[in-house]
Specification:
The structure is a single chain. The chain has one domain: Phosphate transport system protein phou homolog 2, domain 2 (Methane Monooxygenase Hydroxylase, Chain G, domain 1, Up-down Bundle). 83% of the residues lie in helices and 0% in strands. Helix 1 runs antiparallel to helix 2, helix 1 runs parallel beside helix 3 and helix 4 packs parallel to helix 6. The longest helix is centred in the last third of the chain and has 33 residues.
């Protein structure tokens, strides 16, 4: 019975990795749209977001089977309950990547995206998502803690965007609404970083039994 349970836990890890990879693709494709507004690209982001939603449902079903059929002990129970929390954050990451893709279609000052750290924010957010999932699979507490700390990098890049764009808007007031769109895109990336941080905190809980909220 335990061997079957271990196989199902390994299946859970594999499915989480797949969902994390979909989130990474969605973020990257969404930011790519700042350079390319072709409808095909828009549809691709839509498709990835739908795959993320489907993967969330599949993982939920697997977790319910593990909970109801296998009667997991405390450590296993934390692992399964943490996975359920993590996929909720990953689903939100997919939603926000879709929001970025939608807004990118209307941003008319695309050449500015590279000048205001949007690309850097996307890479930092992707790094956080990848490493948070990896830390869960490897049960690596130190790696999860590093993801939590790395959220400061995304936050600092967002602050730079907020500081730089007002000056640009003053110099080019006719494009003001598009600069505001870029701020919103940066905000979505900052939120993605927050969700990746949440995932890492649930990894910490799955290993230690303690969650950031419990520390007051």
């Amino acid at each position: 019975m335990r061997t079957k349970f271990d196989r199902q836990l390994e299946e859970l890890n594999v499915e989480l990795i797949k969902m994390g990879a979909l989130c990474e693709r969605a973020i990257r494709r969404a930011v790519d749209q700042l350079e390319d507004t072709q409808d095909a690209e828009k549809e691709l982001v839509d498709g990835i977001e739908e795959e993320i939603n489907q993967k969330e449902r599949e993982i939920e079903t697997l977790c319910m089977k593990l909970l109801l059929q296998q009667q997991p002990v405390a450590g296993d129970l934390r692992q399964i309950s943490s996975a359920l929390k993590m996929i909720s954050d990953m689903e939100r990451i997919g939603d926000q990547a879709q929001d970025i893709a939608d807004m990118s279609r209307f941003v008319q000052v695309k050449e500015l995206a590279h000048k205001i750290h949007i690309g850097e924010m996307a890479e930092a957010a992707i790094k956080m998502v990848t490493e948070s999932i990896d830390s869960f699979v490897k049960k690596d507490l130190e790696a999860a803690a590093k993801v939590v700390e790395y959220d400061d990098v995304v936050d600092n890049l967002f602050l730079k965007v907020k500081q730089e764009l007002p000056n640009m808007m003053k110099k080019d007031a006719q494009q003001a609404e598009y600069y505001i769109d870029l701020i919103m895109i940066a905000k979505y990336l900052e939120r993605i970083g927050d969700h990746a941080e949440n995932i890492a905190q649930w990894v910490e809980y799955s290993i230690t039994g303690k969650h950031e909220a419990d520390r007051g």
